């Protein structure tokens, strides 16, 4: 079952890449509200959906190019499969680190269907988490084992919606493990408790 799922995931990703190549140059301002969120322009800038209210009270949605660059991705419109697998919404008007605090969202983001098959979404949330001081693979490991190691508490949310990190951050290594220290009773180096 897992083997056939992996094969289907690889085929879906290959099909997505082929379709992306046939679309030509993606300009955020030419995308509609159903394709804007989680898209990347041909210049590598992320697209953002904005809402405005006209004088008549009618809501209008426009797609704009943000200053946030995607890591190694260009000309990308996220697939419906990834939007669903990662628990996202096409009408997202912004991203917030608060979503990483929601265990249901974190479980979907860290699921194999999302984490292993949706590089655009993973890159976006990897950088958002890094800007908050959280290592996304560590967060996913905690989700997988259903262990709360305090990673979620490390996310310091100010309660506002942020457009994402200004500069992409890419980790290529994990921090070195800290050696445990053993104290014995009566040791002068033993910290007071």
| Unreliable sequence segments | 8-22, 147-176
Shape: globular
Q: What is the gyration radius calculated from CA atoms? A: 20 Å
The helical percent reads: 25-40%
Tally of structural domains: 1
- Count of alpha and pi helical runs: 8
What average pLDDT do the residues reach?
75
N-to-C order of helices and strands:
HEEHHHHHHH
Please give the number of β-strands. 2
Polypeptide structure, described:
- This protein is α+β, with helices and mostly antiparallel strands and 193 residues long.
- It has one domain (2-154).
- The protein is 36% helix and 10% strand.
- It has helices at 2-22, 80-85, 98-101, 103-110, 112-115, 119-131, 136-144, 151-154, and strands at 45-53, 59-69.
- Strands 1-2 form a two-stranded antiparallel sheet.
- Strand 1 (45-53) and strand 2 (59-69) form a beta hairpin.
- The longest helix has 21 residues, at 2-22.
- The N and C termini lie far apart (52 Å).
- Keywords: Signal.
A few lines on this structure:
With 193 residues, this protein is of the alpha+beta class.
Describe the SSE topology.
Layout (H helix, E strand, L loop, with lengths): L1 H21 L22 E9 L5 E11 L10 H6 L12 H4 L1 H8 L1 H4 L3 H13 L4 H9 L6 H4 L39
Antiparallel strand pairs: 1-2
Helix pairs in contact: 4-7
InterPro entries: PAR1 (IPR009489)
Pfam families: PAR1
Protein name: PAR1 protein
Key features?
193 residues, two-stranded antiparallel ribbon, 8 helices, 10% strand, globular
């Amino acid at each position: 079952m897992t083997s056939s799922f992996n094969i289907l995931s690889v085929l879906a990703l290959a099909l997505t890449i082929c379709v992306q190549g046939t679309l030509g140059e993606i300009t955020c301002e030419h995308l509609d509200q159903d394709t804007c969120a989680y898209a990347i322009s041909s210049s590598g800038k992320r697209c953002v959906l904005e809402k405005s209210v006209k004088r008549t009270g009618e809501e209008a949605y426009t797609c704009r190019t943000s200053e946030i660059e995607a890591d190694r991705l260009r000309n990308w419109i996220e697939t419906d499969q990834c939007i669903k697998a990662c628990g996202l919404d096409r009408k997202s008007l912004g991203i917030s680190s608060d979503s990483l605090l929601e265990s249901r969202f974190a479980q979907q983001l860290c699921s194999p269907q999302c984490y292993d098959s949706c590089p655009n979404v993973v890159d976006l949330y990897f950088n958002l988490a890094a800007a908050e001081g959280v290592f996304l693979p560590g967060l996913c490991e905690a989700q997988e084992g259903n262990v709360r190691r305090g990673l979620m508490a490390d996310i310091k949310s100010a309660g506002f919606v942020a457009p994402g990190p200004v500069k992409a951050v890419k980790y290529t290594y994990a921090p070195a493990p800290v050696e445990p220290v053993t104290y014995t009773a009566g040791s002068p180096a033993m910290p007071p408790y």
